Structure formats: C-alpha cells, structure tokens
Amino acid sequence: MDFRALPSGRVTLRNLKTPACLLVQDGDLIAVDLTLDGGLITDGPEGRVVDMGGAIILPTFTDMHTHLDKGHIWARAPNPDGTFPGALATVGADRMANWSAEDVRARMDFALRTAYAHGTSAIRTHLDSLPPQDAISFPVFRELRAEWAGRIALQGSCLVAIDNVGTDTFFPNTARIVAESGGVLGTVTYPVPNLRDHLLTFFDIASQHGLQTDMHVDETLDPSVDTLRTIAEIVLETGFDAPLTVGHCCSLSAQDEAEAMRTLDLVARAGINVVSLPMCNMYLQDRHAGRTPRMRGVTLVHEMRARGINVSFASDNTRDPFYAYGDLDMIEVMREATRIAHLDHSATDWPRAFLTNPAKACGFDLPSLAPGAPADLVICRARSWTELFARPQSDRIVIRGGQQIDRTLPDFSELDPLMS
Predict the structure, then answer these.
(1) Is the whole-model pTM more than 0.85?
(2) Which of 76, 144, 176, 418 has the highest local Cβ count within 10 Å?
(3) Which part of the chain is the Amidohydrolase domain (predicted)?
(4) What is the mean pLDDT of the chain?
C-alpha cells in the first residue's frame, strides 16, 4: 500500500494486524479490519476499501511520565558527567537562571508538537515545583492544556523532594496551586529522617484536596533504599484510596530477592500503579567513569505483572541532563523497553503497558479499537514484532479523529534562541 496518504471520508482498512490483548482476546498479533467514518471506528457498512498489507495498527499512546518543563535544555545545560548528581545540580542551576514562563512554554509546546506527530494523545508531565517555580510553571501548564485540548490530554504533577513535605513548609501552598490547576500531587521519596511523618502528611494533604498522587521512588541501585515498602505500608494502614503511581523503583533490582518480593506483595495489596522508565534509568544508573555498567536499572516489571500490579512504561526525560536523548516517541519506548526488560519471549499482553495500563493509572480515556471509539490510531508498515522493533517506523501513519495528520516534526533549530 501507499503509506504516504489514506483516502478521506468513510474508509475500510482491510488486512491489518493488532495485539490480541487490545481486543480482549488470547494470542499475539491477530488480523483485523477497521472501518472509519465521522471520526469514529464503526461497525457499519464498508467504505472505500484499502488493503493495508498486514500493517500493525494501534490506538494512540498515553505517555504517563514525562518532564516537559525540563525538556530540550541540553544545548545550554548538558550533564557534565552523565551521573544523577550531575543532572540534579545542572537542572537546578538552569532552572534558577532560565525558567521563565516564556522559556518553559516554548519548550513544552515544542515537546507537545513532537509527541503529537509521533502518535501520543495523552501525557502526564511532572513539573519542578520548588518555589517560585510552582507559580511560574503551573499557569503555563494550564494554558497549554487548554490550547491542546482535543489533541493531547494533559495532566500536571508537582515535583518536590519528600523532605519539603510538611504543614509548616511551602508544600501546602504548592498543593493549593496543584488543586486549582486540576493537577496531581507529586513528590520524590528517598531515605530521610522522619520519612513516615512526611509521607503521612503528603497523603493527608492529597486527601484534603481530593488529588491523585504520583511519586518518584527509589531511583538508585543502593539495595538499602526501600521507601517503596514504607509507602505501601502507609497506604494499607491509612486506607488511602486515591489513585497512586510510583515511578522508577530501581533499587528493587539490586535487593535480596526475598525482600524485594515481600515489598512487591505489599504494593500489589495496596493497589499501587508502577511506571518503569527504562531509557532514562539505563542512562543514569550504574554510571562510573572508566567502568562498564553492570546493571540496567530497570525495575522488576515481570514480577509486578505476575502479582497483578498495573505496570506501564513511559518516556521520562527528553534531551535534558537526566537523559540526553529521546523524542517523546512511544514506539521508541516500546522498542527499547522490550529489549531492556526482555518483554519478548514473555506474555503477549505487554502492549497494554504502553496503551491501556497508563491510561487506566492516570484516569485518561482508555484507548480502544472497538466500534464507537475515536478513530485515533497509529499504523506502522511493519507486519510483525521483529519488523516493528527493527526500524524506527519513521513512515508511520497517525490518524486523529479519522483524519491522517501531518507528521512533520518541529526542527530543533526553533529552540536555538533559547539556548544562548
């Protein structure tokens, strides 16, 4: 078939393939025909028939863990040594020097245009919220959410260190900004004195405002770090029942097997969502000058899935000191996660971890190929998983509301005025 253009109007796409799990069926890739009309998938009469040659079709993606406010600062703020401390220090300095509303808005809009062209329709972004940045970035986020409505559904989560969470700190005011923005309450957890008290305050403030929560957790390969267990214990003790997502959880991969499994049992009982960020974690974790890395940094996704934990994958950082690469392309995330976490030779329902699982965790509309669902689709020329993951699928088709979109990516040179 000609991948340059699909006919407009009522059209029947014949001879497609899609993961069986997306149609609530058993098996791997299965054949499917879809008819599109009026911006929807329909079970009505056929339209103009197009033979798709066995191409793989997917709903558009949910990228549930990003940092749009940090994105694309690498040209002016590169990580000096590729380490986590180097990233923290470099981002902190750049934020104080450069993150005006205009700067944040321009880079976030660039990122959204990129994600849209790649086939993403929902994004949760973390926003650095150490004052005064919370009062700068959240208004920008609200403006962009309104501008992008109907193209990319947006959620914003504040990002502050757990030791800043208290009733006598700036955090209650940040939580008020988050609530007024219809956002998500977030924090970064690591071993600090009185961790339980900070966490109890965090969940109490979330409950007061009726907010979902999202935490960066144990982003280290130090096996002694296990704040995840404390989080799960507190959720079970308090009965906190708002949606909670934890990201990274790298230290699980370095811990004693029995101890790690005990923590995962608690996470499963607590109903906590987990998102793995394999590209960023491989970049940062186990990096030592002159030494080959020994560990991948990816969390225990297979063991989580076996316990019924809702597991997802996402992009994380993009061209900033925490990850020098990336393009908010969820097909790249699928490809790399499959390789890094050995999702191949495994269960056949892993595609949910890039589509339905993250949407469910965040509360976005669930992607679907069922009649009546929006015709928001990604079609790749690839006819099998090995073909899909062998190439970047740069010629993919993205359909939104039944119409093929222009997939021209924004040029990096647009950002040059911000980098001087």
Answers:
(1) yes
(2) 144
(3) 199-404
(4) 97
pLDDT in tens, 151-202: 999 999 999 999 999 999 999 999 999 999 999 999 999 999 999 999 999 9
**What pairing do the DSSP bridges indicate for beta strands 273-276 and 311-313?**
parallel
Q: Report whether the peptide linkage leading into residue 417 is cis, meaning its omega lies within 30 degrees of zero.
A: no
CATH code where residue 313 lies? 3.20.20.140
In a domain? residue 410 = no
Residues 139 and 52 in one domain: no
**Structurally, how many domains does the chain consist of?**
2
- CA-to-CA distance for 112 and 149, rounded, in angstroms? 12
pLDDT-derived band at 2, boundaries 50, 70, 90: low
Annotated catalytic residue 219: yes
Domain identity same for 55 and 67 = no
Which backbone phi and psi does 277 adopt, to 5 degrees? -125, 70
DSSP tally for the chain: helices H, then strands E: 13, 15
Same domain, 15 and 73: no
Domain of 40 in residue numbering reads as 11-59+367-404
Kindly state the tokens that stand for 33: 């025909």
Inside any domain, residue 416: no
What whole-number distance in Å separates Cα of residue 31 and Cα of residue 57? 10
Same domain, yes or no: 236 and 189: yes
Sign of CA dihedral 160, 161, 165, 169: negative
Q: What burial letters (b/e) apply to 263-300, b meaning 16+ CB within 10 Å?
A: bbebbbebbbbbbbbbbbbbbbbbbeeeeeeeebbbbb
The closest of 274, 289, 229 to 80, measured between CA atoms, is: 289
User: Which among 347, 362, 377 is the end of a domain?
Assistant: 362
